[in-house]
Amino acid sequence: MMSMTEHPANNTGSRGQLKLLAIVAVVVGPILIAWLMVKLQIGIPQSQTNHTSLVEPALTVQDWQLELEPVGYGAPWRLLVTAPGQCTDACLALVYEARQIHIATGREADRVEHVLAVGQPVSGELASRLQQEYPQLQQLPLEPGPYRHSLGAHPADWQQGPQLWVIDPLGRVVLHRDPDNPGKHLLDDLRHLLKLSKIG
To answer: How does DSSP assign 146-178, residue by residue?
Structure first.
């Protein structure tokens, strides 16, 4: 008689223990797996998310003595074309690309400007062409000396000829368009920055 009454009690106790273990596994299991993934570096993405070159060591437009205004919270992002000499055909090609990237940002376009900074004054003919083809293009003088000096720790080809950069609202030079990468890569990176940005 006693053994018959004890048997159901044992079954009930075993079921309760199994339920408790299942609850603990559901709660603790994912935490343990995540800890192991981080500790052993298993399943953690290693690749960079950006497609274009990050500008490191850091640079700012102040390093280039570029009078870019406004700078600070709420200022726009800039697609900046720099030409330490004259604005040649290669320079104009980058101005066109910057404008196309600007347009392609779509509904975020009002948060972006395209800017041209040149080391030598543009001719009257070129000034007229730029005004006609790029009426929203902001133009600034560029001091070639400080510009080239600031790029001394960066790839040598960044100092030569026209270049295309992304400038954040605080005046930091954050991305450089590589000749080997199409403008779409710079557009993708800019869209990503606009999505994450809380400063402009």
So the answer is: HHHHHTTTS-GGGSSS-EEEEE-TTSEEEEE--
Distance from chain centroid for Cα 106:
17
In whole angstroms, what is the distance from residue 54 CA to residue 7 CA?
70
CA distance 80 to 94: 9
Q: Please say whether the beta carbons of 146 and 64 come within 8 A.
A: yes
Angstrom CA distances, 157 to 112, 137, 152, stand at: 26, 25, 10
182-193 per-position pLDDT tens digit: 788 899 999 999
Residue-wise pLDDT for 99-129, tens only, equals 999 999 999 999 999 999 999 999 999 999 9
In angstroms and rounded to an integer, the radius of gyration of the C-alpha atoms of the chain is 29
Rounded Cα–Cα distance for residues 95 and 89 (Å)? 10
Q: What is the pLDDT of residues 127-164, one digit of tens each?
A: 999 999 999 999 999 999 999 999 999 999 898 899 99
Reported pTM: 0.74
Q: How many residues does the chain have?
A: 200
Query: How far is residue 187 CA from its own chain's centroid?
Result: 9
